[in-house]
């Protein structure tokens, strides 16, 4: 699709983004609004999550505050063309502490949303934000989509259930659905206040504030996806979802070449002009049972189906992130 | 374990069996009571499920009527030594019709039970009745435990979630937990009133009543486990669950050599002295999307871990089943 074709595709489309005030949801809202889509964001603005009202600053988006567990969904879903389903409880520790709330958001509320959408927008395309999380500690690297599912925590159980309900909607009712299993994503609008949204959030804050950050473990490999590349992936996924080769599929999404946490820490400091320091700590005992070790994605299936390829390298992405937050620290700390 | 060792192991043990009035739950209750265990069965006695008060006739078992979604669980779980967790919504069509109730029973109520058990019986062993169902349409045969999980219906989604919560309890809290992924089980106490509990239930009824039964499709392969062999498997699973080589594991359970539905129909009629007839019909359209084709289990891991081997061959199991129901048709139709 050329840029012009893409703009034509999205212009005037009714799009609903759940979790639209969060890190990835809001970035997607900005991108969609720029393409001329009519975007509604719904977000529960949960304190422990990624939502931040500042995330939607400057975007032509209608933000509805509401929790998908109980908000009136019918009017939100009416005649929607595309649903980007980004709302989730994503906290691993939160899921362990309160698995009932965790499954209520990530699975039971998904069932309700699916049922409402079936009535209100039976032909809408859905792109569901899923996660590498439930692969657990990888049995082999890189991890492809046929890797066994072995959730390391309650959050992984509920996220897998939610994803599978959406895929069933394609298989049983023919709805165009694609699920993207994300790895660690980073960039502007990531929650950096604390360690609740990937390890990189709090690292960015500490570096920007001139404080020492902690690296837990250090040898674990991770791949990272820059937010702009995530947005491109979601747009592409929606564009191809009705095609037979994409409908009802899950795709891993990777990004940068795998690097150890130590290497990532070094490159973050380099991206900050060499300023910054970290200490290496052992993995906290209360998190050890849910630690997954090394991960990186085999995302060749998604690349083949969509032509997607990450455009923003790690060093550039880190530099851009630092620059973005430097001007907005007060809104994010 | 010799028979004497097994009796010594179980004598006086406090055992809770959820779904204890159902097909497999009640068979387990009978077996446990014979071994001298102190058995409490809890069952919601749901009309669409496998529960039947006649199933517990003659067993020294306390039956509590209650739904694990809301019953007071604490007193039931207090100081239990072993929990056999057989309660489930198992209807595939029911799960599609009401996925919210389905996940409430199979996953959310499991979380509650796990939490109560953590307080009331922190060291109890748990054997969780799981299912081959969520492997979906097999990518290869026979199906081992690393086969990808791809639930073909909402019931498969919720059952996988429930299983995984129990396994986490082993990984995070060290509880001895084993999950058995069952294939089609049959024998005395199976629901034969209608087609709600495997295809074989209604076949048995039709044959016993001298009526024609329907074979849907016909070429699909199935393996079957006779109920006595299932009971042995659950007892063995509880006995080995605390060992490092078993704790926290899932095991497939197979049984008879795979046979096509047509062959199974022929053998059922042969077991009935040649009396009986069937018609082959195409798979009903409303069930086609959740049809899984052929399945048979690779259960070598469980055999290796426990020494289990099925004792009752298919022809004998079918003959025993027919004989058992012939004397009790009124209670089961």
From TrEMBL, chains A, B:
Domain of life: Bacteria
SUPFAM superfamilies: NAD(P)-binding Rossmann-fold domains
Coiled coil: none
Domain NAD-dependent epimerase/dehydratase positions: 15-254
Protein name: NAD-dependent epimerase
UniProt source species: Roseicella frigidaeris
């Amino acid at each position: 699709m050329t840029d012009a074709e893409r703009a034509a595709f999205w212009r005037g489309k009714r799009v609903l983004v759940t979790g639209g005030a969060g890190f990835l949801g809001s970035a997607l809202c900005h991108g969609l609004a720029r393409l001329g889509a009519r975007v509604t964001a719904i977000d529960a603005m949960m304190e422990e999550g990624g939502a931040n009202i500042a995330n939607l600053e400057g975007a032509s988006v209608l933000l509805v505050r509401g929790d998908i567990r109980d908000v009136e969904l019918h009017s939100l879903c009416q005649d929607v063309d595309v649903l980007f389903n980004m709302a989730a409880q994503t906290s691993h520790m939160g899921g362990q502490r309160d698995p009932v709330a965790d499954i209520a958001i990530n699975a039971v509320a998904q069932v309700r949303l699916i049922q409402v959408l079936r009535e209100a927008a039976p032909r809408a395309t859905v792109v569901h934000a899923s996660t590498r999380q439930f692969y657990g500690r990888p049995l082999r690297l890189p991890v492809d989509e046929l890797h066994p599912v072995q959730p390391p925590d309650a959050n992984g159980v509920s996220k897998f259930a939610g994803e599978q309900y959406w895929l069933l909607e394609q298989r049983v009712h023919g709805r165009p659905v694609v699920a993207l299993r994300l790895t660690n994503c980073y960039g502007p609008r990531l929650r950096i206040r604390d360690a609740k949204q990937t390890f990189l959030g709090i690292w960015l804050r500490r570096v920007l504030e001139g404080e020492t950050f902690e690296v837990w473990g250090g040898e674990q490999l991770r791949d990272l996806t820059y937010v702009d590349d995530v947005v491109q992936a979601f747009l592409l996924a929606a564009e191809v979802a009705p095609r037979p080769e994409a409908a009802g599929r899950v795709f891993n999404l990777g990004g940068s070449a795998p690097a150890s946490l130590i290497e990532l820490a070094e490159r973050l400091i380099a991206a900050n002009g060499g300023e910054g320091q970290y200490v290496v700590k052992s993995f906290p005992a209360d998190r050890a049972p849910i630690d997954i070790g090394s991960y990186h994605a085999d995302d060749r299936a998604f690349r083949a189906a969509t032509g997607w390829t990450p455009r923003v390298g790690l060093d550039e992405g880190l530099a851009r992130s630092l620059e973005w937050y430097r001007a907005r620290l007060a809104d994010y700390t």
